[in-house]
Amino acid sequence: TVTRSRFEDMCKDLFDRLRGPCEQALRDAKLSPKDIQEVVMVGGSIRIPKVQDIAKDIFQTQELDRSINPDEVVAIGAAIQGAVLQGDVKDVLLLDVTPLSLGVETLGGVMTKLIQSNTTIPTSKKETFSTAADNQTSVTIHVMQGEREFAADNRSLGRFDLTGIGSAPRGLPQIEVEFAIDANGILNVSATDKATSTKKEIRITGSSGLSKEEVARMRQEAEQNAAADKTRRELIDLRNQGEALAYSTKKSLEEHGGKISQESRGKVESALSNLEDKLKGEDKAAIQAAMKNLNDAAMELGKAVYEASSAGQKPGEGADAGKPAGGKEDVIDAEFEVNDQK
After folding, report:
1. What pLDDT is attached to residue 64?
2. In sequence order, what are the residues at sequence separation of 6 or more whose Cβ sits closer than 8 angstroms to the Cβ of residue 88?
3. CATH for 4-86, options being 3.30.420, 1.10.3470, 3.20.20, 2.60.40
4. Which of 62, 81, 186, 252 is the most exposed place for a label (fewest CB within 10 A)?
5. What is the rounded distance in angstroms from the CA atom of residue 93 to the CA atom of residue 80?
6. What is the CA radius of gyration of the chain?
């Protein structure tokens, strides 16, 4: 004969594993136990008194919902969801969510997330990106899934090329990327060059084809590496900002360098060279200092650019002249790597 205490002792490691998924679900939903109205138990094992006690303790409740046969809960839920999708049931709302974040790889190997984990589906999200080099005529859209900061550490879902982008300085083309997930969890990703209306897309049917164990492992890895990833991401973001500053300063120097003194030009060129050198290293403080030094050195250059811009305006035009009525659309601070340069 096996007593209850003996049985509970034998199953202790299994009982201990019950807490993790429940507590993770609360964290993902950004809820506390007091926000939970009912706890519906599933499966025959919930008849074990110890399991019931653990559930009551986790969700801080005195009673569990016993109105549904635990052996039939999954089948009943599937039937209700089928009726909802079919349109036969109108007064029940069942929400499915994305298990992991979805995004694209951008400059520096970073994963830029468009749809965050635990977003209810169906859903869609658009972001506008740009190019990373002058005269870049195509980009690669690399679709990723996961919670890490860098693409290499996440799951690759697919990739496609958007070609036919008009030759233009870096940062000028506007490429709209849209992620759309339907009620069946099928992901459609499209990329459109706003200037030419050129569009390419990909359909991904396995975006949620991970087991619970794989999802849990990916989340755990993200938590364990959060601090290191954050440090690396800050460095990459700072480098991207520094490279953008160096590019814009160099362009302004080429166009307006003759309008400033030779001494000021020399200071700008020296500060620019120093920043480009610091961007090769990993010292964030040194990069920040070099960026500040360049900004300070380029003040006279900035004045020349401003005066040239003001002189080009017609009488009566203000700072917002030439902008669309609705204002200029924001372009996300991320760029695609060069795929093909002609």
Report:
1. 87
2. none
3. 3.30.420
4. 62
5. 9
6. 28
Locate 118 and state its tokens.
Answer: 């635990």
Residue 313, token pair as written in the block: 């305006």
Q: Which one has a higher pLDDT value, 318 or 232? A: 232
The identity of residue 313, as a single letter, is: Q
Q: Which value, to the nearest 10 degrees, does the dihedral of the CA atoms of residues 223, 228, 230, 232 take? A: -140
The closest alpha carbon to 50, from 4, 117, 104, belongs to: 4
Contacts of 124 (CB under 8 A, 6+ apart): 178, 179, 180, 181
For the domain made up of 102-224, give the CATH fold.
Answer: Substrate Binding Domain Of DNAk; Chain A, domain 1 (2.60.34)
**What's the full length of the chain, in residues?**
342
SS (H, E, C) 194-229: CCCCCEEEEEECCCCCCCHHHHHHHHHHHHHCHHHH
Instruction: Give SS3 for 275.
Output: helix
As a whole number of angstroms, the distance between CA 320 and CA 308 comes to 16
Contact 339, 138 (CB under 8 A): yes
User: What are the residues facing 144 on neighbouring strands?
Assistant: 103, 156
Note the CATH architecture for domain 228-311. Answer: Up-down Bundle (1.20)
Residue 47 CA neighbour count, 13 Å, CB half = 6
Helix (H) or strand (E) holding 246: helix 226-256
Phi-psi region of 177 (alpha: psi -120 to 50; beta: other; left: phi over 0): beta
What are 68-97's pLDDT values in tens digits? 888 898 898 888 888 877 877 766 666 778
126 half-sphere exposure, CB direction, 13 A CA radius = 11
CA distance 337 to 130: 10
